């Protein structure tokens, strides 16, 4: 289960995440994926140089407190690491940095400095890969002129690489129906040249809208079947389906649901044993800008 949260230093927000959302996800039998966006409560309140400020330690008080709270969650009901009630989590921080729609995009040097500093605070608390694993997730194509590879913090600081990509069909003026291979193969090849870290597809879905604007539910169902066959052949170890009808009918609540469920269960057997797969994603409405038109 993928949760979206930001860097808003408000106790109500933080308590909601650590006292309600994460325990509920764990109780449901899932390992939470926390998509942790460096928004300071809103996009408007976030400075354009948020990565530099974070790298320089300006937000250390908040980040250290947040790391302590995650440590308490991972420690289980007794809050103590190293015994039978321990929990686990993934952290997907500052995703899609190779696009041009987030304030943490554009300066790869400061991004890498930020990533290493923030992750270091968790490692210092013994929140290592047996308990918390870090997912570095890019958009499936570069938008804005800075290559994804330049943002890579290094194998010593990343447990998983992730790619976000969608079949937009004909829902946008710039889009057309794409197979899973067409969406993901180019970026997978690029990242595999840089690292052998475990591979995840951390946001994905397909519309049912094909040429002419008509819904093709059978076509979407076939795409989902093709997608999960593709992930197994491509060595993908984790998949997160974007299960919300946002820009289009991304969700699997249509006739495609049975196909999505069947193939998601099959994919789970290929997931890294220490941390079970995350199944579905629901994007939080707050503080998430609408994905811009991209060429």
TrEMBL record:
- Family as reported in the entry's similarity comment: Belongs to the glycosyl hydrolase 26 family.
Q: Where is this region: Disordered?
A: 266-295
Kindly indicate whether the keyword Nucleus belongs to this entry: no
Annotated Gene3D superfamilies: Glycosidases
Keywords assigned by UniProt? Glycosidase, Hydrolase
A GO molecular function annotation here is:
hydrolase activity, acting on glycosyl bonds
**Superkingdom classification of source:** Eukaryota
In the UniProt record, does the keyword Repeat occur?
Answer: no
PANTHER family found in the cross-reference section:
GH26 DOMAIN-CONTAINING PROTEIN-RELATED, MANNAN ENDO-1,4-BETA-MANNOSIDASE E-RELATED
GH26 domain span: 1-276
One Pfam family per UniProt: Glyco_hydro_26
Residue stretches of biased makeup (Low complexity):
266-279
- The molecule here is called GH26 domain-containing protein
């Amino acid at each position: 289960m993928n949760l979206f949260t930001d860097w808003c230093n408000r106790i109500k927000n933080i308590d909601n995440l650590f006292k309600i959302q994460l325990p509920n996800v764990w109780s449901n039998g899932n390992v939470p994926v926390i998509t942790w966006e460096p928004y300071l409560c809103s996009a408007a309140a976030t400075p354009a140089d948020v990565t530099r400020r974070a790298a320089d330690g300006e937000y250390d008080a908040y980040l250290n407190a947040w790391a302590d709270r995650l440590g308490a969650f991972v420690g289980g009901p007794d809050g103590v690491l190293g015994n039978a009630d321990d929990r686990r989590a993934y952290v997907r921080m500052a995703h899609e940095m190779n696009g041009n729609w987030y304030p943490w995009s554009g300066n790869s040097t400061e991004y890498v400095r930020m990533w290493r500093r923030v992750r270091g605070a968790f490692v210092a608390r013994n929140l290592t890969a047996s308990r918390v694993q870090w997912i570095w997730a890019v958009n499936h194509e570069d938008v804005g002129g800075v290559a994804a590879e330049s943002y890579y913090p290094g194998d010593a600081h990343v447990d998983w690489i992730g790619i976000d990509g969608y079949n937009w069909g004909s829902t946008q003026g710039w889009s057309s129906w794409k197979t899973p291979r067409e969406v993901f193969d180019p970026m997978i090849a690029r990242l595999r040249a840089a690292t052998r870290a475990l591979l995840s597809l951390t946001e994905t879905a397909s519309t049912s809208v094909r040429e002419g604007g008509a819904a093709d539910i059978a076509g979407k169902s076939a795409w989902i079947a093709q997608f999960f066959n593709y992930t197994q052949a491509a060595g993908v170890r984790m998949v997160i389906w974007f299960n919300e009808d946002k820009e289009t009918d991304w969700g699997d609540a249509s006739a495609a649901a049975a196909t999505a469920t069947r193939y998601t269960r099959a994919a789970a057997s290929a997931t890294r044993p220490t941390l079970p797969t995350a199944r579905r994603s629901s994007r939080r409405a707050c503080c998430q800008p609408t994905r811009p038109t991209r060429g």
